[in-house]
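Subject: sequence -> structure tokens, single chain

Hey, anyone have a minute? Need the predicted structure for the following. Not urgent.
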Amino acid sequence: MHIEATPPWAFAVNGSVARLNLGTAGSAGACTTYWAQCQQSISLVALELPAHLKNLMEALQRIITTLANKNEELHNFIETLSHSLAGVQVNSTQVISDLEEEFDTLFSILDEMKESMTNTIKQEQARKSHELQNQLTQSTNALESAEELLEFANNALHIKDEEEFAKAAKQIKDRVTMAPAFRLTMKPKATDSMTHLMVDFSQERQLLQKLIFLPVPRAPEIEAQDCLVMDNTVNLVWRMPVEDSKIDHYILEYRKTEHEGLPRVKDERCWEVVDNIKTTEYTLTGLKFDSKFMNFRVRACNKAAAGDYSDPVTLETRAFNFSLESSSSHLNLKVEEGSVEWDPQGGKGLESKIKGKENKGSGTPSPKRAASARSPAVRGGRDRFTGESYTVLGDTSMDCGQHYWEVKALKDCKSYSIGVAYRNLGKFDQLGKTNTSWCIHINTWLQTSLAAKHNNKAKSLDVAVPEQIGVYCDLDGGQLSFYNAESKQLLHTFKTKFNQPVVPAFMVWCGGLTLSTGLQVPSAVRSFQKTENGIGGSSGSLNSMAQ
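Reply:
Had a minute. Here:
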């Protein structure tokens, strides 16, 4: 391997120079970008190393990974410390202000105690500020040391002499062992809460000489192992570290997030609050899981004050989310994010020549007549589906795993289909009439009927049409099932093998559909799939292999 003379943070492999951009110092994003570049550097250099040095290179790579992760952790911790330090200043000032206002009213009695309590608050402020400032200084120094060590480790990648490289790698390993970043505690030694200095001013004036600070409830502890996420509900369980009979209620706060691990001080979503919880357990219901995770924290309250928050917990809330792809739907469909509605006048505002014969008569035009009334010249970008293919697809593909969503038809919907399809579904193709789509079709035009369709074959289903239909798609197990969303009765199952990713697919004529996404696979559906292996009495004749 030949290393050319290049600027700092550049290396050459077989004459090709790769340059590393460190980004802005002190930036967690820059650390992530920098580590990605380090990985690329290591991979390229490792290609040229002798076999006996590859083990050292792998060890160095693990060290750099650990350092980069620690740097990002330190950045987040410093942000937390800074936020807490600012909170101590703000909250202590607010407590003093409230305290002074009360003392102004009762000054004649409380004059002597005023100075004592104010000093107590200021001493607490000074103590917490001192502890947090010391932690902030130590963390900043540890970060500088870690960054210097990371820089030294990266420079070691360019050492050509094998003996010097081995010596440098050993030195890095020894320094990592003693690095201050790994000896720091990542929990602030003080909180910004000053609530333990609150006083009860409701006592009789003659009792004010005995005024004392009220005890504040301790922070609850959330029992993460007992919390349960299922069926779009979250059941939270917590306990108090010490029995406290004076607790009146609890406050639960939660927010959605895309970040795993501890909540970040700055997040794009706000905390939502559930107040006045009387027990140490609460269930959030009816949630839409449109984020990967949710953060939770709890605090206890007595008649006077609220205690500190519990250590937050993060629970996974993944589910299948998608919208309807309005840009490629049929012109006769009015599509919004979570609904689609038949529009017999769709596109006609653009057709200046078509206002005569097509508009004669009354009532809802048939699909065939409505399709023939439009001129292809005015479709613009919305010509993905045309003719009698009144189709709209979901905007998110599925290539593995289990997914679930629900569909509800409007009361006046005459004909609609619900299912999945490959993205290469033809522009004139109707759902269920090709080997690239699977669906159930509901028709209420003259009499109500329900049928399963695939590859231009239909099987009549002798079940009542439910108000809301659940769709379960198991890409790994090769099956597509339809359920009564309320009772979880199985309507039909296709057994197949999907050779391509599929998307949710819908057909609507004369009516509309609304979607419910962000749903977990219901536990009843999971249980049924396990016990019955997804085989229903109506599933046999249309089972097929995907083409």
